Give the backbone structure.
Amino acid sequence: MSQSIVEEVRKALETHGIRPWFQPQYDTVTGKLVSAEALARWINEDGSITPPDDFIPELEKTDAINALDWYIAEEACKTMQELQGNAIPIAVNFSRRHVQEEDFSNKLTSLLLKYSIPRDLFEVEITESALVNEKSNILQWVGKVKDTRVKVAIDDFGSGLSSLQFVKDIPVDVLKIDRSLLSGNCQPEKERIVLESIFYFANRLHIDTIAEGVETSEQLGFLRTCNCKRIQGFLFGKPMPKEEFIKLCQTGARKKTDETDILSLQSPASATQLLLSAIFQRYPLVIFANLSRDSYYMMAYDNFTAKTCSSSGSFDRLIEHGSTTMHEEDREAFKNTFSRSNLMAAHAAGVPEVSLIARQIGDDGVCRRVEITDYFVKSPSSNDVLVISLNSNLRD
Ligand code: C2E
Ligand code: MG
Ligand code: MG
């Protein structure tokens, strides 16, 4: 049985009975068509279609899958070449068996050269289960593929058993979030928390994200609040034959993405992110300090007018340095108000906050009034004296 499928697939590749269909991927916010995935389809003589799940698992038992993947990759390159100026990046699925393919990177480079495809137009998808099954070689393999300057995506992320440790170490460009993580309306609180956490860490690690299998506008609305970058799913577009895909790229169609009121889907974690943005807008310098341990770090300071201080370090030194940026008549007041000993004494006396308006010389040499307010905050896990310092420039 399996032998005959392998043989039939080999013939179908020769006669182009198997070919890629293309599923569009859209920018989550703008609804713009930005990329696509090539998906194998077996078109039978009677026009019926055999889906990949009916033949790929069988091919994956042997190296027979490699021929199919390279064939789809080549067809994807031909399509991009035909699209010329309208070409968008296309992702191609590569089975985990390619991790054992010695000259994978060289083959890929030759293919891209053959069709003059710019490197940033090609994306290699490798399924998450490969991270587990090919553990010892995968880091090296991904590194080599990345050396060719094409992008690497982890497919079906969240469906398998890969550890976060691995995601931290592997230098991938894209995470494709598996559709099994999304329920129809994204309402269950636990589901939201898990998804938000994935997007949060991916964004912090500067890894691009795609949500797969998006079928409802509720899912889309929620994914927008999570800052998911791209959307792939039946809501926007099913996999389609090459000719249809080429037309789609040529017309540059855009999907409407604003059907859902984002507030109806807003979750506490994403609302907190927005709240922080508002705070940073109002207070361009925000410092978090632990007075008990003489430490601080700046939560926001990029937009402040004086930023010669280091972004973290000793609180005493911060005040020492800060005083040198003050107008000379305000230096003593600044030091007295914000010295660690005086702040600790104020805290011990039950004062909720300490505030001062002083004149400060900005990096541009201009003197401005700044308002500095240190709020004492309580950590749930420590008795240290903590302070959040909100700083803003006052308009004269
Ligand atoms: P995949 O790479 O995760 O591809 C996404 C699958 O989700 C595709 O199924 C796509 O049609 C389906 N999908 C996309 N949006 C939606 C949606 O909104 N709802 C639902 N229900 N499904 C959606 P498809 O084309 O049947 O492919 C299944 C799997 O077969 C692929 O999953 C991939 O693992 C494998 N595959 C497909 N083509 C190739 C190939 O050329 N090489 C290799 N090695 N594997 C391939
Ligand atoms: Mg895929
Ligand atoms: Mg997938």
In short: The pocket of magnesium ion (ligand 2) is lined by residues 37, 93, 125, 155 (CB under 6 Å). The chain has two domains: 3-269, 283-393. The chain has a mean pLDDT of 91.
